[in-house]
């Protein structure tokens, strides 16, 4: 019998740890390896004032749970009352409602930018003002697509992804594993793996099964030489675990 593969989880923070716990609960071996950490704005007062200067808007797009958390720290819910809010998935939508934001709109299934852009509230946006809250390197497809549809697009960077070095214990864990499967959370996570692991470990990782939550990210992985890339139905835990269970672990 082949040993269970080591499942590498790249999702950041508490959400990543929760996904690790679910892998462990199913009897798998897991390594939490985000190689990034999230930081809020260096000057929250200045960022909050900048956001207020952009209001009112016809709609908000927040691209992640971290973006929602930062928004809740920067502005009061009453300042956003009644503004339609678009988020990437059901979990993020639930958090938005807990924070008193909304009305909230989210795609079902895949939570990528393409799915968000198919929402009815984003189809007819000519002459509307839409504010996107994200990290500096996040979701640029949304900006371009909404501008192409005639919207005036505003953008505020409310958090950033900061690189974290690979620890020696993490490297040993990868080296000691007989098989690997990687759950890739984002394009930034994929790039950090390529940059941080070194040529030998990266070659091994890219030739092992890799689960990715969007077609665009799958294509990027293939460009980087990942030969066993598999697409999940979405970025949520259930979709990633479903894809993990179905992807083969032997060459």
From TrEMBL:
Pathway: Porphyrin-containing compound metabolism; protoporphyrin-IX biosynthesis; coproporphyrinogen-III from 5-aminolevulinate: step 3/4
SUPFAM superfamilies attached to this UniProt entry: HemD-like (SSF69618)
EC number: 4.2.1.75
Class of this enzyme: lyase
Residues annotated as domain Tetrapyrrole biosynthesis uroporphyrinogen III synthase: 24-241
GO molecular function: uroporphyrinogen-III synthase activity
Catalyses which reaction(s): hydroxymethylbilane = uroporphyrinogen III + H2O
InterPro entries: 4pyrrol_syn_uPrphyn_synt_sf, 4pyrrol_synth_uPrphyn_synth, UROS/Hem4
UniProt superkingdom: Bacteria
Biological process (GO), any one: uroporphyrinogen III biosynthetic process
Alphabetized UniProt keyword annotations: Lyase, Porphyrin biosynthesis
Gene3D superfamilies reported for this sequence: 3.40.50.10090
Cited function: Catalyzes cyclization of the linear tetrapyrrole, hydroxymethylbilane, to the macrocyclic uroporphyrinogen III.
PANTHER family in UniProt: UROPORPHYRINOGEN-III SYNTHASE, CHLOROPLASTIC
UniProt record similarity statement: Belongs to the uroporphyrinogen-III synthase family.
Entry protein name: Uroporphyrinogen-III synthase
The organism of origin for this protein: Wenzhouxiangella marina
């Amino acid at each position: 019998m082949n040993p269970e593969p080591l499942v590498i989880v790249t999702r950041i923070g508490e959400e990543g740890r929760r996904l690790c716990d679910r892998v462990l609960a199913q009897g798998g071996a897991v390594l939490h390896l985000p190689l990034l950490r999230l930081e809020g704005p260096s000057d929250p007062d200045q960022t909050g004032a900048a956001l207020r200067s952009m209001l009112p808007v016809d709609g908000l797009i927040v691209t992640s749970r971290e973006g929602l958390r930062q928004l809740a720290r920067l502005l009061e819910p009453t300042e956003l009352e009644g503004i339609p809010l678009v988020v990437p998935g059901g979990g993020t939508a639930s958090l938005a409602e807990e924070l008193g934001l909304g009305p909230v709109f989210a795609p079902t299934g895949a939570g990528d930018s393409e799915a968000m852009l198919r929402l009815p509230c984003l189809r007819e946006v000519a002459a509307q003002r839409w504010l996107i809250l994200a990290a500096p390197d996040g979701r640029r497809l949304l900006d371009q697509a909404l501008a192409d549809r005639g919207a005036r697009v505003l953008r505020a960077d409310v958090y950033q992804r900061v690189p974290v070095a690979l620890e020696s214990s993490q490297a040993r864990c990868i080296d000691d594993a007989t098989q690997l499967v990687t759950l890739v959370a984002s394009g930034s996570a994929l790039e950090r793996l390529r940059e941080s692991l070194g040529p030998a470990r990266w070659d091994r990782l890219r030739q092992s099964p890799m689960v990715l939550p969007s077609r665009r990210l799958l294509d990027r992985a293939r460009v980087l030489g990942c030969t066993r890339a598999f697409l999940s139905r979405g970025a949520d835990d259930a979709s990633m675990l479903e894809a993990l269970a179905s992807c083969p672990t032997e060459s």
